[in-house]
Amino acid sequence: MESEEAPRPLLEVRGLTRRYGARIGCAEVDFDLWPGEVMGIVGESGSGKSTLLGCLAGHMAPDEGAVIYDTRDRGPVDTVTMSEPERRMLGRTDWAFVHQNPRDGLRMAVSAGGNVGERLMAVGARHYGQIRETATDWLGRVEIAGDRIDDRPSAFSGGMQQRLQIARNLVTGPRLVFMDEPTGGLDVSVQARLLDLLRGLVREMGLSAVIVTHDLAVVRLLADRLMVMKSGRVVESGLTDQVLDDPQHAYTQLLVSSVLQV
Ligand SMILES: Nc1ncnc2c1ncn2[C@@H]1O[C@H](COP(=O)(O)OP(=O)(O)OP(=O)(O)O)[C@@H](O)[C@H]1O
Ranges for the ABC transporter domain (predicted)? Predict the structure, then answer.
């Protein structure tokens, strides 16, 4: 008898649609995300990337569709219809969300160590010494010197703030990370370093991720698969290298030839 369960996607997205009045935010989006896989979502401004990410992460209710997540304890559950407390709990434990602007993902009046430690406490850690030790370890993993642990994020550069936001998000060992333009607004050299760091962490931790970006260099480096959005719909999807090297849809061809890149 076969005792092992068949592998199944971590996330199954079906017919996801969100309108703003008569305007389409995103429409009929379908995809599976497998454990350890990174999905990139690209498209020009207004193509529906943020709307889709918001619906996936439970920040926004879709009008139609399902976002089925393979929970640790109950197996696949539609997060669209789950209760708000349940969704919040997922957001604190199994899921993480990295905002484009670190200010949206950090508590600016709390020390760097506090920003990381607070997340551990939210999932039940109580031992002060251990929390500080783990926080120090995580600051090191995102290349922030241990002697900055008591500094507030407002004293950090943009790149450091973003790395701190990543540490705060990953310290609890999530399985799925949503990222909204994680390198947006940073200098090119800072972006490269951050991308390297993210790639290392994603691989090391075997993370699954959904990354929204308009920067094709970001998906080239981080994403296994790619979805290209236009006017709220997915117009092309596939393995990242395949889509970027041999785009089939005219819109993707424009994107790749950088005509549409912002
Ligand atoms: N709060 C809102 N009210 C009305 N329409 C909205 C709202 N938010 C987004 N839209 C519309 O939904 C569509 C998709 O927008 P969305 O912000 O998801 O795109 P995007 O690809 O993330 O763009 P950007 O890269 O500029 O953030 C656009 O037509 C936009 O005008």
Answer: 11-256
List, for residues 68-104, the tens digit of each pLDDT value: 999 999 999 999 999 999 998 898 889 999 999 999 9
- Best probe residue, ligand 1, of 16, 42, 51 (max atoms within 8 Å of C-beta): 51
Domains of the chain and any CATH numbers: 7-94+174-262 (3.40.50.300), 103-173 (no CATH)
Instruction: State in Å: Cα 20 to ligand 1 middle.
Output: 9
> Measuring from atom 10 of ligand 1, which residue has the nearest CA?
25
The ipTM (two decimal places) reads 0.96
Measured from CB, residues less than 6 Å from any atom of ligand 1 are 20, 23, 25, 43, 45-51, 214, 232
Interatomic CA distance for residues 106 and 99, integer angstroms: 9
Mean pLDDT over each residue of the chain, to the nearest integer: 93
Rounded to whole angstroms, how far apart are CA atoms 258 and 113? 40
CA 47 to ligand 1: nearest atom: 21
**What stretches of 77-213 show up as alpha helix (H) in DSSP?**
84-92, 102-105, 112-122, 128-141, 158-170, 188-205
Nearest to 210 by CA among 29, 17, 27: 29
Band (pLDDT 50/70/90 cuts) for residue 242 is: very high
